[in-house]
Write a structure and sequence with these properties.
Length: 453
């Protein structure tokens, strides 16, 4: 199993896949460690998480370099990712006690309440696009709740996976409580169904989510799935067009366009369509595609060449069905998995740009007549992760976001982002369950009723 620098195509390192016998031992030891860990106080667990946060902040530049090498993230964005990981550790260190306090409920009993017990050892199957954040947003609440964890990371970010393990261990977390395994995805069923795994969380594609849910379901194990998205951004006729265009461009190009909650489909009122497209195109043109180690780079290479080629195929098939390229759209020659900033207009049903997730710096623009058509178009998707509405009338936009859009996260006049204080997750083919906030830490606990007469 190899990690490859997507900017150069050079192999960084090769790793030996673990045999099931070794993984079995790791899981058994994790369960033994968890039996001790669950009895530690919240205050003691919080000490370890605060130490993790310190390490993440101290090494943020080093970690950013690792992300740039393994999956092409521009350095400044990698630094921001490490800082956000520190934030989520600090947040749960501060909040876990109140989130998991016994919930006293008045009944005919002399005492009745809900208490929250950890489930055991949780398997985390994580993607490459935010190799540190995706893991820490799971690990911080899971560990604070008293669980253990096994990490199976994406193959091309295996170095990041072992660095995460190192940081967690350096912070004082028992070494057997959190472990990384190296295993091809084709061999994960046996791990998922291992009797020592209590539950599974996966961030990844809808296809991967269906496979994991089916395998876990065979043995009645809980899953939390954060899957793909085709996030619609509605620009109404009364929007601040310049602000909307800037926000939309920023969202579309975050992490070189490789984000499940990045804006994907831009649904624009015909009354401001020309103005929006002009401003949006100007901003998109100004963004620099280049070496993730160079200052000023906005978009690095795509994480792998095969992913870049799949993205280009989606663009070509959309054009064949009637979409029009107004910026970019040509796969560059030379080394590296680079792809240009691209805009597609005249996008409609039946096209990959309309129906599928475009995981890269490609924007699909759709013209609509009015609010009603905009909402209908936004919801005309199998996905339901994020969505945004732009309007100077905040009450109008809020009503659309709160009651009309079919998504787990709906923002007004701002791009969708994850925040430790707010629940994060989707509906429909974007998955189920929630991460972050109170809702996230309660996913992997047993909400146990206690009744005393």
């Amino acid at each position: 199993m190899k990690t490859i620098d997507p900017a150069t195509g050079k192999t960084l390192k090769e790793y030996q896949e673990m045999e099931m016998e070794e993984i079995d031992s790791i899981i058994q030891k994790a369960n033994s460690a968890q039996q001790e860990w669950k009895n530690k106080s919240f205050e003691k667990r919080a000490e370890y998480l605060r130490k993790m946060a310190e390490i993440l902040k101290e090494r943020k530049h080093e970690l950013a370099e690792m992300m740039a090498k393994e999956m092409g993230k521009p350095l400044s964005q990698g630094v921001g990712e490490a800082e956000k990981c520190a934030w989520v550790c600090e947040y749960y260190a501060d909040q876990a006690t109140s989130f998991l306090d016994d919930d006293m409920i008045e009944t005919d009993a002399s005492k009745s309440y809900v208490t929250f017990n950890p489930l055991g050892v949780i398997l985390a199957i994580m993607p490459w696009n935010f190799p540190f954040w995706q893991l820490f947003r799971f690990a911080a609440p899971a560990l604070m709740a008293g669980n253990g964890a096994i990490l199976k990371h994406s193959e091309n970010t295996t170095g990041c996976a072992f660095e995460i393990e190192k940081i967690i261990h350096e912070a004082g977390i028992p070494k057997e409580l959190f472990r990384t395994i190296v295993r091809d995805k084709t061999g994960m069923k046996e791990v998922i169904q291992h009797e020592g795994i209590a539950a599974v969380t996966l961030t990844g594609s809808t296809r991967a989510g269906k496979a994991v849910a089916a395998q876990a379901g065979e043995v009645l194990k809980k899953t939390v799935l954060e899957l793909g998205g085709s996030d619609p951004y509605i620009i109404l006729e009364d929007a601040d067009v310049k602000q909307a265009a800037e926000t939309c461009a920023t969202s579309r190009l975050i992490n070189s366009g490789q984000s499940c909650i990045a804006a994907k489909r831009f649904i624009v009122s015909e009354h401001v369509y020309d103005e929006f497209v002009e401003e949006f195109t100007r901003i998109m043109k100004s963004k620099k595609v280049g070496d993730p180690f160079e200052d000023g780079t906005d978009i690095g290479p795509q994480a792998r060449e095969d992913l870049r080629d799949e993205l280009h195929d989606q663009v070509q098939k959309s054009v064949e069905k009637g979409a029009r390229i107004t910026l970019g759209g040509e796969k560059p020659d030379g080394k590296g998995a680079y792809y240009p900033v691209t805009i597609l207009e005249n996008v409609g049903p039946g096209m990959p740009a309309y129906e599928e997730e475009l995981f890269g710096p490609v924007a699909a623009i759709i013209k609509v007549k009015d609010e009603s058509e905009a909402i209908k178009t936004a919801n005309d998707t199998n996905f339901g992760l994020g969505a945004a509405v732009f309007s100077k009338d905040e009450k109008r936009a809020e009503q659309i976001a709160a009651t009309q859009l079919e998504a787990g996260c709906c923002f007004v006049n701002k791009f969708v982002k994850s925040d430790p204080r707010l629940p994060f997750g989707g509906i429909k083919q974007s998955g189920y369950g929630r991460e972050l906030s109170l809702y996230g830490i309660r996913e992997f606990v047993n909400a146990k009723t206690v009744y005393v007469k």
